[in-house]
Design a protein that fits this description.
Helices cover 31% and strands 36% of the residues. It has 170 residues and is of the alpha/beta class.
């Protein structure tokens, strides 16, 4: 087993001063480490899940191979204006403004059990909006999976009503 945390590169002052950016690309470049991540997510996925829902864009990196291994559908949540079909939207607050995410209206059936996946949990804003979007579609979020969790930003608190799992914590 690889020590995944040791593979994360910390880059100070990116994208702006005072931020410590956690770079996951060394894990992606290491085939054994990447496989370990996907297999860990598979182990953490409840058996009754019918879809993997992933948040744009780095969530797609993990969600696609996971849905393949599970033999279930993959549903992308994207930023506004990126999906071509009929969609459901959800606005959410950012530090300085509002953003919108979308999902195809036929991506999740009513009562369908799903997992949500993304690369990083920070404040939890995007993940919380994604959960609400899934629920607006009639889906049931069984679990939320992250590669990295920044514990000092308390994103888990925003998701306290859900089963949250992260592989690496900073």
């Amino acid at each position: 087993m690889k020590d995944l945390k040791s593979l994360i590169r910390t880059i100070p002052d990116f994208p702006k001063s005072g931020i410590l950016f956690r770079d996951i690309t060394p894990i992606l470049q290491d085939g054994e480490a990447f496989k370990q991540v996907i297999l860990t997510f598979k182990k953490e996925t409840p058996k009754n899940v019918k879809k993997v829902v992933a948040i744009e864009s780095r969530g797609f990196i993990f969600g696609s191979p996971l849905s393949y291994l599970l033999g279930v559908g993959f549903v992308p949540i994207r930023k506004s204006g990126k999906l071509p079909w009929k969609k459901i939207k959800m606005e959410y607050d950012l530090e300085y403004g509002v953003d919108t995410i979308e999902i195809h209206q036929d991506g999740i059936k009513k009562g369908e059990r799903v997992i949500l996946i993304d690369d990083l949990l920070a404040t939890g804003g995007t993940a919380f909006a994604s959960v609400k979007l899934i629920e607006k579609c009639g889906g049931i979020v069984e679990k939320i999976l992250f590669l990295v969790e920044l514990t000092d930003l308390n994103g888990r608190e925003r998701l306290k009503d859900y089963d949250v799992f992260s592989i690496i914590k900073f």
